[in-house]
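Journal club side-thread
Mid-discussion, someone asked how the predicted structure for our own chain would compare to the paper's figures. Pasting it here so we can look after the session.
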Amino acid sequence: MSDNEPSQTSFNRIMLKISGEALMGDQGYGISPPTIERIAAEVKSVHDMHVQICMVIGGGNIFRGLQGSAQGMERTTADYMGMLATVMNALALGDTMDKAGLTPRVMSAIGIERIVEPYVRPKALQYLEEGKVVIFAAGTGNPFFTTDTTAALRAVEIEAGVLLKGTHSGTDGIYTDDPRTNPEATKLEEVSYLDVLNQGLRAMDSTAITLCMDNNLPIVMFDLTGEGNVRSLLEGGSVGTLVR
């Protein structure tokens, strides 16, 4: 294969879900420039394979709605604050991607047109066809829904071939138990949607899993911190855990 020829992949369009905490790097809060630059480079590597990419990013590095609610804040207010945190992360990631040579478009589920454009499905599909990277911000626009559910919903809406969930904790897939506390926990190479739900495996929330199951959308949970993991996964490498 020549250097200019794209690698072969079975997925032409993917949804990449990353948590807000993934942007912190070794920091305890906020955005680490080296970390966000590495993520942008990873996305650029996949984009060079002629894969259409959309993304959902959480806001936990800035504010988590559940955490605010647990501290006495009204849940709806806390969730809206979390949505705004995802917009901040999406803007930062988009700016970094632009500097890496990509053409990002941030689309928000809540109306803040002076900052980012609203989410409109036909426009998102047009951007993907044009080779732009679409970053979906502000969750679903509704409280009580996680960004995992947002990723599943948007992936189904734009007909992605797979939902890739990158973890930031160094966990390279789904285990029978938390490997950080249970040394006997074993990694699962493949697992069914129902097993994830029935066994309470650490993957995505139940609404997201059910939505993927109902629409036959495969999920791969993998270690985002491993350099080249996204590209390797799309090239058929044994990376992470497949849920289908």
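Post-session note: The helical segments are 33-47, 65-70, 75-99, 121-129, 147-157, 193-199, 206-214, 229-234.
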